[in-house]
Amino acid sequence: MPIHYPRAMLRAHRLHPMELWGPPHVERHEGSRHFQAYTCDIVVKAMSFIRSGGLGASKAILVPHTCDALQGMGSVLGDFLDPDQRVLTLYLPRGRRGSDHEFLQSELRRLATTLVEVSGYEPSRADWDEAFEAEDAADRALADLYQRRDRLAISDRDFYTVVRSREYLTAEQFCQQAAALPEGDPPERGVGLMISGIVAEPALFDQIEAMGAHIAGDDLACGFRRVYSVSAQADPFERAAYRLLTSPADPTCGTPIQARVETLEARMRALGARGLLIYDPKFCEPELFDVPLLRKHLGACGFPVLHVEFEMGDRLPHQTLSRIEAFVETLS
Amino acid sequence: MSGIAAIGIDAGSTTCKLVAVDPDGAIMSSVLEPTEPRVELQVQRMLDAIRAKQGADSSVPTIATGYGRKLIKEATRNLTEITCHARGVFRDLGRAGTLIDIGGQDSKVIQIGPDGRPIDFMMNDKCAAGTGRFLEYTAARLGVSVPELGARALCTAREEPISSTCTVFAESEIISLIARGAEPDAILRGLHRSLVGRVVSMARSVGVVAPLMLSGGVAKNEAVRKMIAEATVEEVVLPGEPQLMGAYGAALLGIS
Predict the structure, then answer these.
(1) pLDDT, tens only, B215-243
(2) What structural domains and CATH numbers belong to chain B?
(3) How far are the Cα atoms of A39, A114, B42 from residue B49, in angstroms, in the given order?
(4) Which residue, among B39, B125, B127, B256, would best test binding to A if mutated, counting the most A CBs under 10 Å from its CB?
(5) CB within 8 Å of chain B, chain A residues 252-311
(6) What is the ipTM of this complex?
(7) β-pair type (A86-90, A60-64)
(8) Residues of A in contact with B83 (CB under 8 A)
């Protein structure tokens, strides 16, 4: 489950992650029996998917403590529903102090013990090194993709299709895909928007393009917020913790609002974005807390902000599309 | 030779409007009809009629707005109602400020900048509360026609509070009030207050910058105007033809 987890640690234990962000085209009813009515689609639809046997080939479900809804999902799965897969939780600290690093390292050690039980495999030093090497290469490839965005002759939909393929491909497959993207003269792409939020479905990019705009940059949990820094600590837990705790600003990681504003403002200026589109699944608490402050502070810096909530898998209603289109018109 | 410089089309959910303007932006001709199910065919017919009347051909820039704007194949360009209403009202009243546009299907609050462009806006979506449809739908339950609504709401001092902002639940509330013998005009007054409460709350979230201007069909309703002025303690200003402002703005954008 989203968002942040130690990929190299899974690989070292010979486990391959497949991420569940929804999935969008699953009905809510099976999952909604276990949650409050306002719980977001990412959690409820994932629960529906799991309950309908969608994870038949998996050995375990890793539920990081990204938000209260996901923590609730971890508890409901582990304590009440007893799925065929082992349910693993990961408590992520909300700060980036020395004590947060120490806490996360101990969490990762606890998780590693469980991973040995799940996989039946205890990684050697060489396994850890190989895993970090491969996953660091994929992390670098992702960072490089963002660096090269303006030189890639592809649409936003195609770009994010590759970015999000990290959710299910191996590190090697992802690197290969990223390297194969064609470079060329950037097409004329209209008004630049920064998009923020958890996840954006592919159709949105087509609609934004049809409105005469493009995604100049993103602050998406499924995108730029996972451009991790790589490091070379000898201790694998220290190294994995460093990766997770040096990710870009992210409200689910407790990034203070001022730091978020400063980061977003600097990136928007650098990337030529004229406004911020906050695109959230309904009732996404960690994101919603920041919305009024982002609107206020970025507005004061000359960057208008539009907040749109959506339900995963549903077509965006005409009125919502009109709001985005009007926002683009005000920026043109 | 035709003096038409551009035509604006507002294919709205309740009414369909066309406005033709001369090179100075003055309205030369306009037409308004209830929206038909095949809006694209209706607009084509209206467009042919206005062109024939003014001796214009299809080379005149034609800008479409409204919910049906993307269906208008002859449109040179389509733009949202927000941009078009802002431009139309700005030209008509010559003032920047806050525009409340209450349409049949949605309502919007638009802050208009000193150049007539929208600076910020808020729009209700996915819900009929706070729209013309709310009044139309609930008034139908009382057997009152839309043009009568405002006057009926103002002819009584009594007011039955409608606690629900949801159109469907409000209708249930009306049925209960009728069953309790409440006066229809007092119910209508309560309905207006409910709609205005919703719209004003949206306006406050954008920030009300005077003057407060109204457009859209509901702007013709005097009770709505009066209650918005009371709730905001601001003067409410109306353009000459509030229902035509979307099409007028579209036509003006066709010239520019």
Answers:
(1) 998 999 999 999 999 999 999 999 999 99
(2) 6-84+245-255 (3.30.420.40)
(3) 53, 76, 11
(4) B125
(5) 299, 304
(6) 0.82
(7) parallel
(8) 326, 329-330
